[in-house]
């Protein structure tokens, strides 16, 4: 009975929950229970090594180092463990562990722990630094299983191998056959694409329904022409073991509707947009197609809702946040582009090259549930002569029309005042440069925050090189000015991130408890700021934080470990934030960046705690990158 | 025994109880009296009874759990239901919830006792109002012609009384001590998870957790060895 209670306890806490029943029973059979009154020291810094792994059954402890002042490293509560490292190393205990409440701990003897590690090496990893990468998948899986709100068809789409949905029997024909014969084969077999083969029966190209429509019928080509004349010779393939998600994102990226599935060097099947649509009405591809088809902003409103639904499906599927954001950004961008196109078709194009850009999290491709559109317009008056009056008229018209159409499509708010009230939403490159530098120079914190967002500007419509040149100029000014560089890291450089969780609270190193965690302010923005600073120091124009990290690593500016850990940390923070926002959305609550620790599982808390620990080394790397950059200036 | 009613009645019944006999059997004396508190082998146990008269009534279940000092050995537990040795009254059935039909197929006293005696061998036995349980155990042993328990016995109720009078740290830690002495109230007062179902093993586990807490507060008051403990809390 008592043993069964303890087994039940261990089955619900990480990393024990991943052990099989017989191993948990083995632990329970060797377990003892220890009581430590409030304020008593359970382990002492520099004291003898721990002879057991302790798991808190009830109560809580403070982990701290005693020097001149006590430095708090962590707080632990029910379900947390301690004493592992000193138990394994046999070395003296490195920290003080003090009960901050009357505390009951299960004690697992050293021999039992060693035996389990031998059987289940991943068990030990949980307590080590390598936890982060090794347990991330388990954390995501747990998060996914928490909410099984969705239908099986929807779940299937993203995680199953593409071979599961691809048509296995690939119908092929020699590339020399006529268009007419090719169309006949497609019609007989009721297929939307035909693989054309060349020498040795190897695939040489593909013709699709769209090709027949656009390249034959519309272009008035004779149907006796060889099919190879109209085929797409660039064959896009995907390995049969890749996920449907990968197939889908390739199709979205390349704007194609057919993908050849290969097994080694052999053609194993074809996957089409239709295959995805059969599985799911909310396929991002079908949304994309739908956006293109609409002729008014009002008709785009239901599509916007479907984008949000897609986020929730992808989340429930356990798809990584970076992948979700890639798809969502693409869909949002297309939606905005469509609205701009509608505006322009109504009012005509300007005579001067321009770029419509987004900034902040949208610029970084890290925006999830879109509520406000942050955007502005930049002109290039250096290449072409631009009539100021013409520009003013176009921009005013565009903003008015945008506002109206965004409202029609359910995006009532949009911020076209990136640098505060009274500053026009458009300008040429030089004007934008001056505006940004002026705002930086003012030292006004509110302005600085907005300017920082502007540094992540990304053109989504028009001449993208305009934004690249603007960033070139601004980045250079920042690199050359010490005060600007200091502002670049924002307030984050001074702020400490949380040290951990204690029951339903988030705690900082002073022991201050907060009932909510602002995942953006206390977590992701630290990572974003440090990475942005490094990107600017090294003139990297890419805006996505994850891409910036990858480029920094590729150039040897940060090590691979730091890059991997920072990517995992940011992905996890964004994932958990999206999960919480999704729930709030479903409950019709205001969408914000706050997470309630009470609603997190122990594994989620443990993973979040690890993400906080990556912030400091990243900050240091950012500070170092500027001092290196300084030396070069 | 059931928790609330049985413990209250235990107090009054105690006055009628005789001290247990001391024939050798389950105690070899291998645990020295100067053994430090942290090293004492304890068996904390509790019984559920059909009534309170050891001559008429009988044990229906025994639950026990092992400790070393203040460490509870979670898996070293003992729990057995016994075949009724007589008629069970409605009152006792209400308390422990064990019906005659349920117990009919269980093992007899003769089968269970050797295992229990083996389990408690060479350990200091502990209980809350333990004399009642001891009287029933010894009465049963007598029926089996096995003498009586020779293990030193400690009562958590006596430890609590002693701490109530002498334990300044104990009183400041818990902002006063419990006025009530039954297992249920005392467990609640000292923050121990209380099992609502009356069960000998659960009650033994609650008692073990009481002992665990009390032992921490005895050391600062100079109670350091088995001998010291027996001086203040021998049953």
Q: What Rg of chain B is obtained from the alpha carbons, in whole angstroms?
A: 17 Å
CATH superfamily caption of the largest domain in chain A: Beta Polymerase, domain 2
Helix content of chain B: 40-55%
Helix and strand content put the structural class of chain B at: alpha/beta
CATH architecture identity of chain B: 2-Layer Sandwich
What is the name of the CATH class of the largest domain in chain A? Alpha Beta
Strand content of chain A: 15-25%
Describe the structure in brief.
The complex is a heterodimer of chains A (633) and B (235). Chain A has 633 residues and is α+β, with helices and mostly antiparallel strands.
Protein model, in words:
- The complex is a heterodimer of chains A (about 625) and B (about 240).
- With about 625 residues, chain A is an alpha+beta fold.
- Chain A contains 23 helices and 24 strands.
- The termini of chain A are far apart.
- Chain A folds into three domains: about 1-130, Sandwich (Jelly Rolls); about 160-280, CBS-domain; about 305-630, Beta Polymerase, domain 2 (2-Layer Sandwich).
- The longest helix of chain A has about 30 residues, at about 600-630.
- Chain A is globular.
- In chain A, α1 (about 1-10) crosses α2 (about 20-30), α6 (about 130-145) runs parallel beside α22 (about 560-585) and α14 (about 320-345) packs across α15.
- Helices cover about 50% and strands about 15% of the residues of chain A.
- Chain B is an alpha/beta fold and about 240 residues long.
- Chain B has a single domain, classed as Ribonuclease H-like superfamily/Ribonuclease H (Nucleotidyltransferase, domain 5, 2-Layer Sandwich).
- Helices cover about 45% and strands about 15% of the residues of chain B.
- Chain B has ten helices and five strands, in the order αβββαααβαβααααα.
- In chain B, strands 3-2-1-4-5 form a five-stranded mixed β-sheet, sandwiched between helices.
- In chain B, β4, α5 and β5 (about 155) form a beta-alpha-beta unit.
- In chain B, α6 runs parallel beside α9 (about 200-220).
- The two termini of chain B are about 20 Å apart.
- The interface of A and B includes residues 34, 37 and 102 of A.
């Amino acid at each position: 009975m008592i043993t069964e209670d303890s087994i039940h306890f261990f089955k619900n806490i990480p990393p024990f929950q991943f052990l099989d029943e017989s191993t948990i029973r083995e632990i329970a059979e060797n377990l003892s229970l220890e009581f430590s009154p409030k304020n008593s020291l359970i382990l002492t810094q520099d004291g003898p090594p721990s002879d057991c792994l302790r798991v808190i059954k009830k109560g809580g402890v403070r982990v701290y180092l005693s020097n001149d002042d006590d430095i708090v490293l962590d707080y632990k509560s029910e379900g947390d463990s301690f004493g592992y490292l000193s138990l394994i190393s046999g070395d003296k205990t490195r920290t003080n562990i003090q009960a901050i409440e009357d505390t009951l701990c299960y004690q697992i003897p050293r021999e039992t722990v060693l035996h389990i590690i031998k059987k289940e090496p991943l068990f030990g990893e949980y307590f080590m630094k390598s936890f982060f990468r090794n347990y991330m998948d388990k954390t995501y899986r747990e998060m996914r299983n928490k909410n099984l709100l969705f239908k099986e068809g929807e779940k299937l789409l993203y995680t199953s191998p593409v071979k599961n949905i691809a048509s296995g029997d690939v119908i092929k024909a020699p590339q020399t056959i006529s268009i007419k014969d090719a169309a006949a084969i497609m019609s007989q077999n009721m297929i939307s694409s035909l693989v054309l083969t060349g020498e040795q029966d190897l695939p040489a190209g593909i013709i699709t329904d769209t090709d027949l429509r656009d390249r034959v019928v519309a272009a008035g080509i004779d149907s006796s022409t060889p099919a190879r004349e109209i085929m797409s010779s660039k064959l896009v393939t995907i390995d049969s073991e890749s996920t449907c998600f990968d197939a889908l994102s390739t199709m979205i990226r390349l704007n194609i509707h057919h993908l050849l599935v290969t097994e080694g060097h052999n053609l194993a099947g074809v996957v089409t947009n239709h295959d995805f649509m059969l599985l799911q009405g909310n396929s991002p591809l079908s949304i994309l197609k739908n956006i293109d088809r609409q002729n008014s902003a009002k008709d785009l409103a239901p599509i916007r809702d479907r984008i949000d639904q897609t986020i929730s499906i992808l989340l429930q599927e356990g798809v990584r946040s970076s992948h979700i954001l890639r798809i969502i950004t693409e869909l949002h961008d297309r939606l905005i582009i469509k609205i701009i196109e509608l505006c322009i078709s109504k009012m005509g194009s300007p005579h001067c090259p321009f770029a419509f850009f987004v900034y902040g999290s949208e610029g970084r491709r890290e925006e999830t549930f879109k509520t406000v559109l942050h955007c502005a317009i930049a002109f290039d008056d250096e290449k072409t002569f631009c009539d100021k009056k013409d520009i003013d008229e176009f921009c005013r018209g565009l903003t008015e029309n945008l506002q109206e159409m965004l409202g029609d499509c359910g995006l009532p708010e949009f911020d076209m005042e990136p640098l505060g009230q009274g500053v026009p939403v458009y300008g040429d490159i030089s004007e934008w440069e001056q505006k940004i530098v002026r705002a930086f120079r003012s030292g006004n914190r509110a302005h600085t925050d907005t300017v920082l967002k502007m540094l992540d500007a990304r053109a989504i419509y028009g001449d993208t090189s305009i934004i690249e040149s603007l960033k070139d100029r601004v980045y250079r000014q920042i690199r050359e000015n010490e005060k600007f560089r200091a502002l670049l890291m924002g307030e984050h450089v001074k702020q400490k991130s949380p040290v951990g969780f204690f029951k339903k609270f988030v705690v900082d190193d002073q022991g201050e408890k907060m009932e909510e965690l602002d995942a953006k302010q206390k977590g992701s923005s630290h990572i974003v700021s440090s990475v942005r600073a490094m990107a600017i120091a090294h003139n990297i124009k890419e805006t996505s934080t994850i891409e910036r990290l990858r480029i920094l690593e590729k150039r040897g500016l940060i090590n691979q470990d730091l890059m991997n850990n920072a990517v995992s940390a940011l992905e996890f923070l964004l994932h958990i934030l999206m999960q919480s926002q999704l729930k709030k959305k479903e409950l019709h609550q205001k969408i914000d960046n706050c997470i309630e620790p009470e609603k997190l599982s122990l594994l989620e808390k443990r993973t979040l705690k690890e993400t906080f620990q990556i912030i400091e080394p990243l900050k240091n790397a950012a500070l170092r990158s500027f001092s290196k950059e300084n030396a070069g200036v | 025994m059931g928790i609330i009613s049985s413990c209250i009645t235990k107090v009054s019944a105690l006055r009628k109880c005789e001290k247990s006999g001391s024939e050798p059997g389950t105690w070899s004396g291998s645990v020295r009296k100067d053994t430090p508190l942290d090293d004492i082998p304890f068996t904390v146990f509790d019984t559920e009874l059909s009534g309170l008269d050891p001559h008429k009534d009988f044990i229906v279940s025994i639950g026990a759990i092992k400790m070393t000092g203040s460490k509870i050995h979670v898996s070293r537990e003992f729990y057995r239901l016994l075949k009724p040795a007589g008629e069970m009254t409605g009152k006792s059935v209400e308390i422990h919830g064990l019906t005659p039909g349920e117990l009919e197929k269980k093992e007899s006293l003769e089968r269970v006792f050797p295992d229990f005696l083996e389990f408690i061998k060479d350990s200091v036995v502990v209980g809350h109002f333990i004399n009642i349980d001891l009287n029933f155990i010894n009465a049963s042993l007598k029926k089996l012609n096995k003498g009586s328990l020779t293990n030193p016995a400690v009562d958590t109720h006596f430890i609590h009384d002693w701490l109530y009078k002498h334990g300044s740290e104990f009183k400041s830690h818990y902002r006063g001590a419990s006025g009530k002495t039954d297992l249920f109230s005392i467990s609640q007062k000292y923050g121990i998870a209380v099992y609502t179902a009356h069960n000998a093993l659960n009650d033994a586990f609650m008692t073990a957790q009481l002992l665990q807490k009390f032992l921490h507060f005895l050391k600062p008051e100079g109670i350091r060895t088995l001998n010291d403990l027996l001086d203040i809390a021998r049953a």
